[in-house]
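Hello, quick one for you while I still have it in my head. No rush at all, and the record is pasted right below.
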Amino acid sequence: MLKNCITCGKQTKDYSEFPCPQCNAKIARCKHCRQISLPYTCACGRQGP
């Protein structure tokens, strides 16, 4: 299954998915963005590494 990375927007099969600590929305991040610690911003405005 493909998911869009919340950070870079690319579709990937190699992702990690977790709930936003603030609003519980699902956040999917690709392996590359996780490895280089690019920040993400959830739809609720919460930011993370």
About this structure: The two ends are 24 Å apart (CA to CA). The chain has one domain: 3-39.
